[in-house]
């Protein structure tokens, strides 16, 4: 009983496999066989990579090179077959019609590839029947229709998908076997031609599969790079949000404390004024609570963000620049700091962003320009703060860094958040320069932030 069940299961499995093969064959070769699938022109990037010396005007024409090649081949097939029609062959309009029928399928592969395959079988069959009366023996592969049919199949595989190579090969040689039996031709060449044609189609399928794999790899790399850049940008924005919490929370704490103490500084404070101060304090405290809540959400998404530093430590400012330069020098980078203009108190957010820009610029110099010197310029100018970090060319080979270029995204995000402008590019001597300007308005009378934290 078990043996009988196993045989039935095996038979059902074979039937399912055969049904799946026939279903796939039907989907590939019969459903929408003449659907319009035009071949797009070559991309400009490929033209520039293959023939960079070609003038711009000729590059526009070079994009249509595959179409022109196939069109030239179709015209060549038409003229050669028409010229080869001898006295014993079809004559006049019939010969021209057959030559046209033979030349159309290669051209049709540019627009309707699967339909071109079916159309190319017609002259192959017609030629086989026309050769049936050959006194030297019928041979269905002796006429020019079969080589053209093989080329059409190759073009179809290159245009569609690799599995069509096996499907077209099976259908073609099934038709060839039927034609051999109908015209009474010698079947000796059938196996040899089938093997030869199979090698050609397998090679074309391998080329098509390689191109598909390469395209998918390029798409995957592009998506990975975009995701990495997007993730880096989001991480930088989360870091900025955490830092801005410290800046804003300090000022909100000062507002709350001053609002609470104000009524006690004035004798006989009017009730309306005391109520206003109480409202100000309540709003400030509520804002602090909202800041803490939002910061909790940001920190929970990245619980290890503060693993390397004390989350309760004061945020750095330009006053901590000497300590930063000292740590960078101890890491092996020779750095010079130049401060121009008259230093003055700046908003804490501006000083924090300027410090982070310098920190990231020097970190990039350490990673990507080992052995080079660096220079940091801080310029206190009218209307804002200028920051410039420049390093020379590396004196030794830098180790590959998977995050190359992502630090620039973070710096640019900080500058744009404050309404400033930034440039980052390579210098003529092989180094790198980052220059940023952060606008600052109404700084007169401001004092550097300090004191308590929320």
Textual characterization of the structure:
It contains 13 helices and five strands. By secondary structure, it is of the alpha+beta class. The chain has a five-stranded mixed beta sheet with strand order 1-2-3-5-4, with helices on one face. Strand 4 (421-426) and strand 5 form a beta hairpin. It starts with a helix and ends in a 15-residue tail after the last strand. Mean pLDDT is 79; it is low at 301-312 and 442-454.
Outline the fold blueprint:
Blueprint: H1 2-29, H2 44-50, H3 56-62, H4 65-83, H5 92-108, H6 113-130, H7 145-159, H8 164-183, H9 188-265, H10 271-301, H11 321-330, E1 334-340, H12 348-368, E2 373-381, E3 384-391, H13 406-417, E4 421-426, E5 432-439
Parallel strand pairs: 1-2
Antiparallel strand pairs: 2-3, 3-5, 4-5
Helix pairs in contact: 4-5, 5-6, 5-7, 6-7, 6-8, 7-8, 7-9, 8-9, 9-10, 9-13, 12-13
| Biggest sheet strand line-up | 1-2-3-5-4
The portion of residues assigned to helices is 55-70%
- Low-confidence sequence ranges: 301-312, 442-454
Alpha carbon gap, first and last residue: 80 Å
Structural class: alpha+beta
Write the element-wise H/E pattern from the N-terminal end onward: HHHHHHHHHHHEHEEHEE
Name the beta content range.
5-15%
Q: What does the oligomeric state look like here?
A: single chain
Radius of gyration, taken over Cα atoms and rounded to an integer in Å: 38 Å
Sheet of most strands: 5 strands, mixed
Give the strand tally: 5
Taking all residues together, what is the mean pLDDT? 79
Our count of helices gives 13
- Indicate the overall shape: elongated
